């Protein structure tokens, strides 16, 4: 484009802009409609019916954006309402809507407003004067009459009625009572026995009604002046056990989950009288008055009875109306948005038209710049495409690195789990030889102690690897309980006293206060302080000093724990990496796994604390743990945490206290050589180890997978089962669930053995039905005593079942699987009592099991044989039949399946120490 062609185009553009400006001026909006101010004096807005009234007003007002609406809530106070109406008069509102708290106190101020020429719309509650512009509300006299007629038809003209009145002096309460009384007069058989003033509120009814109901127990129906008081009456009746006899009806019929319609549908109320709030009608009447349109002075809202016959229809209609109203409101919002958009666009057009005038002058420069920009944009597009390609490559590399890291960590974790099985086979025999074995030479005991220390050190490394994995994936929860931090740290330091004393190291503890209460997780902080003290002991020279101090800092809402030593210190090269996982410093002595300090830092941060250090080479180091005095409620636990003693710093001789030597003896005598223990363990060495340790005390059978174990348990019905969690195909948790779900094996105690030691995993095992959950490596003596204790507890349970079956009624409520088995067994025996040839095989066949399985199940649950159990049921039934004088003793004997009366008499006397004839004579004499 050359200059000669550009200038005419420019002038044409300027002319077009001027035309647009003239058009916009001509399209300015017309004169806006006049604005009105409506004041609403509400007696109270504290109940659902009043809120529904206000919601209706606001819905209708959405059609009149020119109206300024103001509301004042009197909170059921007539004096306050009079004051608020005077404030409206001073504000010179264009129209006043009044819903009076009480008729007489509010009438004078309403008359004053009317006489001043201010239109007054009376809503719901009338005043005692006719000086008002219009009335909108229901006919309370008609509401009372409708309720009375409904009560008459519901009670068929006969019954006693109790009335719950509204607030004294309120016109709705007066008119509803008068209409109700007039309607009841048409039914001579209906009696209004009592009245209760409920003040329109549910708590008042619940406080006063119980006394009245006790005075008038003959009440058949309660009529409450609103649904809130009706709900209170229903709750009182339910509490007194009268809700099935006394019917309750109310007034309002509001929609919603807490409205009268829902109460009727749920059967709480027998019926409710529809009493529309009238909010929409009040605004419509007010706008007719303000716009000088024709209006009615008396606007009476209709009422109707809502009961079970029409409540669903009414509810659907109200929900439909609500949905339509929401659509209207949504359309109004959209319309307003369009109006706002139009106004903003109009302003923008003014600005754009003016801007176009200046833009024409710069048009040539823009055109020239456009060509240069297009060239630059093309270059930028090529560069952006190259950057995008590089970013995609980086994301692919990052995802690949993440997958590889996750695979390494998963292998890391699984490998750590696998280490627990050989540690079990090492620590188990060693612990038993050291605690319960025969006397051995000192050299051998020293060698065994060396084996135990190094095996425990391996266990320490495994535990630290597991903690590292839990922190890395965020699976280590904090369960803080409140305790004394000073006592907690002192207990940890006690473990270090002996090795420190052996090296002449002074171990000092300097708490600022004797008691410092704190919310903390004992298992987390135990590992933190063990690592810090182990690290200090490792790098402190002989006859050195280690000082642990505790100082609360109230100003910072924290507590500071410092561990200070005078060892070799940390070099400048190591300071930047001291908290990195698996980092080992440049020093040539006291090398470790490189996990202790990194684990301590991770656990401290998990506890929302900080771990810092200061160090000078050759002068020692100070590690400081800063913990918050308070923890969020999500990290707190009501139940105290069990301290899991970690095996930290074992290379310094700090060993965890094992089982006390006296545990090597027999602690329980609940098991005998007849008890059968089933071991389910897939590792052949662990399986053989368990069998070897248990065979001197029990009969032992073994299985190497879950399916075989379930089959052997069902066939042999063992007295106890020891099962590993990690089994091929069918896991130990699934084995436990199937054992507890099968009535043949539901009574058998189950001990789970696993290398998974996380608290949530232990909870999972107990929830599956396990009676005991032991983590590997375990102490064989502790396992043996645990089995004896479980068998002893099982004997107590058998005694409980025997006592439960020794009463006159021989059936047991099938609340658990074992009780259901006993109930089924008892039912089969009772159905065949008359058969003298009834055998154990017959009962087992009816239950679908073998004779051996039935015998072992009954023996395990009740401690008795099947024949004795059948005999016990027959003799218990005999006591009942002997109380019937019409049956002879011989008839009782044959009816219960005894082969002869003499055998019956002998058995009965052996059981109850009296003969059947003596038992009957005693009963006859007592009667």
TrEMBL record:
- Residues covered by the Response regulatory domain: 676-791
Q: Which GO terms describe its molecular function?
A: DNA-binding transcription factor activity; phosphorelay sensor kinase activity; sequence-specific DNA binding
Work out whether the entry's keyword set contains Glycoprotein: no
UniProt keywords, alphabetically:
Coiled coil, DNA-binding, Membrane, Phosphoprotein, Transcription, Transcription regulation, Transmembrane, Transmembrane helix
On whether Transferase is a keyword of this UniProt record, the answer is no
Q: What parts of the sequence cross the membrane?
A: 348-370
Where the record annotates domain HTH araC/xylS-type, the positions are 823-922
Q: What class of enzyme is it?
A: transferase
Tell me what reaction this enzyme catalyses: ATP + protein L-histidine = ADP + protein N-phospho-L-histidine
Q: Which SUPFAM superfamilies match?
A: ATPase domain of HSP90 chaperone/DNA topoisomerase II/histidine kinase, CheY-like, Homeodomain-like, Homodimeric domain of signal transducing histidine kinase, Periplasmic binding protein-like I
PTM 4-aspartylphosphate: list the residues.
724
Coiled coil stretches, renumbered: 373-400
Give all residue intervals belonging to the Histidine kinase domain.
414-631
Among the Pfam families in the record, one is HTH_18
EC number(s) from the headed UniProt entry: 2.7.13.3
Q: What is this protein called?
A: histidine kinase
**Which source organism?**
Hymenobacter taeanensis
